[in-house]
Amino acid sequence: MARLLLLDLPAEILHLIASKLPNSGIKNLRLTCSFAQVVFRLRFDRVFLSPHQRDIDVFCQVACSETFRHQVVELVWDQNQFCPGEVEWEDFQFDAFTVLESYELATEMVRFQRNRIAKVGCLRSDDFTPFGGINMPVSRIAKIHTYVQIRRETNEERNNDSFALEHHINRFPSLKRITISHSTNGWLFEPYYETPQIRSFPSGFMYDIERSDPPIEPLWNGFGRIDPSEYAESTRAYGAIFRALAGAKELQLEEIVMENPNGVNYGLPIAFFTQPLALDYLNLVELLRRPHLRRFDLVVTKWGEIPDNGLGPHPPATLLNAALGKATSLTHFSFKLTTFYHHPANNWFPLKTLLPINRWTNLRHFELAHLAVRQNDLANLLGGLPQSIRSIELGFLEFFEESESLAGLLDEIHERAFWSGRDEMNRPRLGISLSVGQCASRSIAIRVDAEIETFLYKQGMNPFRGSQQPDDVESGKGTERDVFNPEYEWPRDEDFDWQVEIDRAEKRLSRMLMISEGNLRRIEDAVSTMEVDVEAMRFEENSHGW
């Protein structure tokens, strides 16, 4: 019987096969013969840009390629850093223990998450591999970290990433989406996005997975005014993106997305919305008024309390509302407000003063997360959403009053029958996400949706009634999901005890630290002589891939 060769298959089947392969697999197929080079084409629907040199180089090369630049529909701006920045020598021993701990715990989380998904149980506490035993030497890691950070800081000082974006943005005529992400690192050794910089690291290279925007303290100085240097650092990336996009008037951009998985503390500082004449704010307004814009996911970070600077009781709310009111073509809107170091009752914003929902007549998806809310105020906002709404997401909400809760919110929505009169196809689907618990990974959350739909439309029980807390659900209700592994989800099961798993990880960590003295000495030796020859490292990176 004659053998059927791969390339004898119809073109439709070959294209289907290629759609299931990563680019690395397609590259290998293309090397087999000239016909495969014609049939199997590399996918370049997404490009990455960041202050890291490798990302800048690849971005510019794709922009200059007549073959690939027309395929790009998404640009991901990577906000991650791979190391915590400059480390003072006298503090390094403490920092080294912290780094070792974060690497080991993060790796442990990956391992027992993977094992849990595979239903083979978690690692035993005696299943131990010393730090560095299967990975790169610590001195080598420190050297690469320093080299990468030096080049990143140089590019930030010279604005090389911003210039690359402004110079090449118009060379992507099919560009539809801009994503500003702090999620590229994902889990250690399991990146959420495989950026060119991450792909360039050697096997076993360990990097920091902390995700946050600078600064880590309020932007306001002691006189209630914005600190210019801190503000510039905190808004640098956003300003560069808004400026480049505002100047690219030929682009028909449809989506601007600020990614903010649970537990990732970053976003556009709320001070951004206190300066009505600032160029960055005006550029954002210009983007939002464009008729092709369909989706806007906004993340705002508020550090501390907002002082009264004479512009009104809540000037940020006024400017935010004014900017969002220009986006009349939105069909998808998400708003997340991350707050730190303040009592939730301070600087409260009524939701309708923030969000001009009456201007979004075509809105189909609406999301609120990480806000401190009043139950009745939120219910009024949801009831005022347009007839076009089809899905609503609420996540990680905090209520001002002890008497208010998710259970009470659902009861109020049910009693007021906002959507019960609609036919089944036009009823919005409401989903609520909440934290698994303090001991669980920050990226894992409980999502409740099917039970809510049954309660609102099919005379079911309130899923938040009957549990010990009115903001919690009983075992067996809802599902647990990991934002860094979106294809994985599993039923809510109280038999899995996160505290037990953390105890095992900490026990394993303590044993690791007891024998890590040699590794710490190696780190100390590496850092004490860390005058990296940048040119030599660049040659090694380009010639040998590290």
From TrEMBL:
Sequence segments annotated as region (Disordered): 463-484
Feature: compositional bias, Basic and acidic residues: 474-484
Domain of life: Eukaryota
Protein name per the record: F-box domain-containing protein
Lineage: Eukaryota, Fungi, Dikarya, Ascomycota, Pezizomycotina
